[in-house]
Amino acid sequence: MIKIDIHTHILPKNWENLEKKYGYSRWVQLHHKQNGCAMMMRNDVEFREIQSNSWDPIVRLEECNKHSVDVQVLSTVPVMFSYWAKAEDTYDLSKFLNDDLAQTISQFPHRFIGLGTIPLQDSKLAVAELERCINQLHFRGVQIGTNVNGKNLNEPEFLDFFCAAESLNASIFIHPWDMMGEKDMQKYWLPWIVGMPAETSRAMCSILLGGILDKFPNLKIAFAHGGGSFPSTLGRIEHGYKIRPDLCAVDSLMSPASYLGKFWVDSLVHDENTLENIIKLFGDEKVSLGTDYPFPLGESSPGELIQKMDFQKKVKSKLMGENALKWLGMKGSDFITGD
């Protein structure tokens, strides 16, 4: 039973001062500490403390081996998307992040798979970097955010990206960031525990109601966090589509529920009932192991929730790795485990 974690994040160990390089603030910097940890800083404010497993592939592999994870799909930390910045600067940063990711993967090509990052605020630059990620760096796809400076993913300016992704057979992992209402809910970590699930549902509804899968039916899209709040509100979404077609059914060919089975979600839901529900909803071939490694909102023991469920072995095999292989367009023979 191959175990593939499709939702893990990684950073370079070091990068230059981006505020000095680009000439304005808001960029993330990394300040290493003597204890082996590092602090991510933004506008001279502490954003998040991280450990060496956020950048060191040797440490990552030690932890993968400890939890019998055969393969990690690596993507950048969403705060690095930088859609807010000048497009040419985000393009430059994306190339740096992707080159560093490619270098990490080259050391352990049978244990790591890459998802690049792109300057999605500029269609031409986004497609250019997507093509480089697939054709030159040999990544399997890219990770993108749930919105781009408040614009939903169904906006016409993103169609060229989706068209290119379909043509290149690129996998797309959609991760929540720049959560709506974030400024209005600063206490209790609400942007992460409320805003992120809502953001994922926002992206899913935008993709489905926006007709993206009608225009590009062969897209391979996976959504983080088990689809966020979408599964528990699908009844309301579907009902709204039926009773107000003048508002909801204006761009898609089918109702939202009709698209179930045409995209993937990860398994990161932290709850047995919820995991069982998303498998019933999306199908046991469309849910893949995802942990949000190495961050605290993730699953600390990868696959533990799946293993404890009363599923047949063949279903667990799908969830642990077989579904990921289909999303990535790969075969188990592409990997040699135990490096």
Description of the molecule:
Helix 4 (123-135) links the parallel strand 6 (112-116) and strand 7. It contains 12 helices and 11 strands. Helix content is 39%, strand content 15%. The strands form 2 sheets. The protein has an 8-stranded parallel beta sheet. A 3-stranded antiparallel beta sheet has the order 2-3-4, with no helix packed on it. The protein is α/β, with parallel strands linked by helices and 339 residues long. The protein has one domain (4-14, 56-331): Alpha-Beta Barrel (TIM Barrel). The protein has helices at 18-22, 57-66, 87-107, 123-135, 159-168, 190-209, 212-215, 230-243, 245-248, 272-282, 304-308, 313-328; strands spanning 4-9, 28-32, 38-42, 45-50, 71-75, 112-116, 141-145, 171-175, 220-223, 264-266, 287-288. The longest helix has 21 residues, at 87-107. Helix 4 (123-135) packs parallel to helix 5. The radius of gyration is 19 Å and the shape is globular.
Strand order of the largest sheet: 1-5-6-7-8-9-10-11
Report the oligomer: single chain
**Main sheet: strands, sense, barrel:** 8 strands, parallel
What percent strand? 15-25%
**What is the class in the CATH system?**
Alpha Beta
Query: How many domains is the backbone divided into?
Result: 1
CATH topology grouping: TIM Barrel
What coarse outline follows from CA principal-axis ratios?
Answer: globular
Second-tier CATH architecture:
Alpha-Beta Barrel
Structural class by sheet pairing and helices: alpha/beta
Number of helices: 12
What do we call the CATH homologous superfamily? Answer: Metal-dependent hydrolases
Mean pLDDT: 96
Query: H/E order of the elements?
Result: EHEEEHEHEHEHEHHEHHEHEHH
Q: Which residues form runs of ≥5 with pLDDT under 50? A: none
Distance separating the two termini? 16 Å
